[in-house]
Amino acid sequence: MTTATPKPRTLITGVDGQIGSELFDYFRDKDGAGQVVGLDLRPPRKPDWQQHGHFEVMDATIRDNLESVIKKYNIRTIYHLVGILSAKGELDPNLAWHVNMQSLKHVLDLAAEYNIRVFWPSSIAVFGPTTPRDNTPQETVLEPRTMYGVTKVAGELLCNYYFHHFNVDVRSLRFPGIISYKTPPGGGTTDYAVEIFHAALQHQHYTCFVSPETTLPMMYMDDAIKSIIDLMHAPAEKLSIRTSYNLTGISFAARELETEIRKHIPSFHCSYEPDYRQAIADTWPIRIDDSRAREDWGWQHQYDLAGITEAMLSNLREYYEQKHSH
Ligand code: VAH
Questions:
Q1: Which CATH superfamily is domain 179-217+249-325 in?
Q2: Whether this model's pTM surpasses 0.85
Q3: Which residue has a Cα nearest atom 4 of ligand 1?
C-alpha cells in the first residue's frame, strides 16, 4: 500500500524565538496545527505546541537534521528564524557566525534541492558607521561593526546568489527593533524597548542600557508578521530586491518611549546607564528609507509609538494579572 504524500507543510526554524514563536502561532491558527512544523534547539516553552502539532527538537546547523524534517513532513516553505542576535553575538562571535551562517547555508542548499520557498530575516544591523544614518537608503554602504551584522550582510549575499544561480525563491526583510510581549527579550540591542514595558508594570522604574537620546528604528510585532506574510504573498515579478528589503515602522529616542509610557503610568521613570550595547546602537541608523518595499509590494506599517505603547501595556497587564492570579 503506498502511503499518501502529506499535504505540503510549512517549517518554522528558531520557533522558540521572538519572531519564530509568533509565526508558529499565526500558521497554527491559519492552517491548523497539523500543517506547520516548529523546530528549535530546546523543547517548546508552550507545552501545547508539542501536545497538539509537530515540533522537532534539533540543531539546525546540521544538514541531515533539516533534510530529515523536510522529507518527513513534505516541507514546501521554510521561515528560517534561527539566529544569535547582536548583543549576544558580541559575547561569542564564533558561535554567532557558526549558527547564523551554517544553518542558512543548509536551508538554501536544501531549498535548491527540494524546490522550497524561503523567508529569512536580515536586520538594520547590516548598516555600520560609514552608512548614512538618517533615512538610510536601500542601496548603500554595508560595513557593520558587529558579528551579527556581518552574518546578516553575508546572509543577504547568499540569498541573492541562490536566487540568481539556483532560482531559489528566497525573500528577506531588514528588520528594525521589534517590540512584542509574547516572548522574553532574546539578546538584542533593541531589547531595552521590550524590557522597559515589563519594568514599568512591575516596578514603575527601568534602568535603560542606552542613553536617553538614542534613536533607533522600531516596529510592533503585528506589523512585522504582516510584513513577512505580505512579502511572501507578493508576485515574484514585483520584487526588485533579492538581498533584503529595508523595512521600518517608526523611529524614537529612548526618552520619547519613557515619556509615552508615563502617559499611562504617571509614576514611571527611567534611569540611564549605557553599557556595551550603546556602542552597537551608535553604529545603526536613526531612520530607514523603506520606500522600495512600499513601492514594490505595498508595505505599510500600522502601529505608531502611541499604538505600540497602548498594545504592549494592555497585553502585558493581562499577562501579569493572569500570572499573579495562579
Ligand atoms: C537586535 N533585535 O537587537 C535585533 C535586531 C535591529 C535589531 O536585529 O539584535
A1: NAD(P)-binding Rossmann-like Domain (3.40.50.720)
A2: yes
A3: 188
